[in-house]
Amino acid sequence: MAAIAVLPAAVCPAPAFTAVPSSADADWTRLYAAYRSAEAEEKACCRIFGAREDAWDAGNALREPEPQPLESPPFDMSLPLAEALAAAIGPDWEERWEAREGERKAWKVRDDAAYAAFIGDTEARWEAADAVCDKALKALLAHPVVSLSALAEKAQVITERFGDMVDGDDAKVLIADIRRLAGGEA
User: Fold this and answer.
1) Is residue 75 part of a domain?
2) 151 with 176: CB under 8 angstroms?
3) Are 174 and 155 a contacting pair, CB within 8 Å?
4) Alpha-carbon torsion 142, 27, 35, 23, what sign?
5) Is 48 part of any domain?
6) CA-to-CA distance for 34 and 36, rounded, in angstroms?
7) 157 and 77, same structural domain?
8) What is the pTM of this model?
9) Per the domain annotation, does 21 fall within a domain?
10) Mind listing the pLDDT tens digit for each residue in 55-67?
C-alpha cells in the first residue's frame, strides 16, 4: 500500500492563472485571445489619454481664466423688496448679465477648442478601444465554456474587469457554465 504524504496548505502553491487559455475549445481560445488583446489596447489608450488629461489639468494656471460671475451689492433690508432689488441690481442688470453670458460662452468655445487641440485624438482612440474591448468581453462571457480551466478563466476575467461590482447577469453566466460542466441543466 502506498503512503500518501499530506503537506500543509502553506507549502502547496496556489494555482497561477496565466494569460494563455488552457481550454481545448478553439472558439474559447480565439475569444479569450481577442479579449486580452482588446483589453491591452484599451489600457494602453487609457494611459495615454489619462496622461494628456492630467497634463491639461496641471496646466490650468496657463489657460485663459473663465469670466467671473456678476456680483451685486447686498440688499438694503430696510426697503420694500421691489425697491431693494432695484437698488441692488441697478437698471442695467439684464444688459450686464447678457454681456457676461456672451463673454462666458465665447470663453467656453475657446477653452473647448484649446482642450481638443491639446488632447488630440487620444480620447477618441481610448473610447474606440474601450468599445472594442467591451464587445470582445461580451462575446467571451456569452460563450459557454467546456472545461473547468475555461470556467476559471471566465471567472478571473469577470473579477478582474468588475472587481466587487459583479452583477447578477455575470453570476448567472457562471452558474450556467457550472451546471453544464457538472452535468445538470444550464
Assistant:
1) yes
2) no
3) yes
4) positive
5) yes
6) 6
7) no
8) 0.63
9) no
10) 888 877 567 888 8
